[in-house]
Amino acid sequence: MKVDVKAFAALCFHGLLDLVYPPKCLLCGTLLPEGALCTACIASFETLQPPFCVRCGAPTLKASSWCLQCAAGEVPAWDWSFAFGRYSGGLREAIHRLKYGGSTSLAAPLAHLLANAFHVGAIPEDALQIGNLAFDIVVPVPLHPKRLRQRGYNQSERIAFYFAKEKGWRLETRGLRRVRFAGPQTRLGAAARRENVVGAFEVTEPERFRGLSVVLVDDVITTGSTLGEIAKLLKQAGAARIWVLAVARD
Hints:
It holds the Pfam family Pribosyltran. This protein is an alpha/beta fold. Helix content is 37%, strand content 15%.
């Protein structure tokens, strides 16, 4: 039997690493067969369940109804939105570690949870009338170059990469950029957030989006100001359909 020496050496090397640095849950540190998230941590995440607003996807009180924001006429530019869980507890901690703590290994398991949750059974029939769950491209929310240099990576792009890989859809990271540096949105109210992102993004290559169904991916949906501004620009560029997806909704 012919032995692949390089493969055997790699197997031995990784086996030795596992002995010295055994894989642990990326959130709580529990030993695992392989490094990701343990079942206890995943079980602690509060998933979002219907009913959802049939216009924008936000949680609402009644089935087949609009949320208060849409009913008040503040309808977002996207066609629908979906998030895996509520931005609280362990899920909030995981996203914080990915976004601010440099724990980029969390992007893959979080994207996996989002990809698994995003299926026909989780989407109301009213929303499915907008279109099926097949999309042409996956677009992450871009960071300003200054923020990208500070952080070293774009957490939304990491999530989008693994999500697109699982779904078999094309990741598109060109043609959309952030052109104005703005401070963090976290301490701003809804009106200030909307004003803060006006003119912050630019579609540089409209042909990359024209006529296509787009999944716009972010880590968290809060007020939707950033995502709404981008969705508006993509629609102006000719995108046929835009669904916003995020790991969590605040």
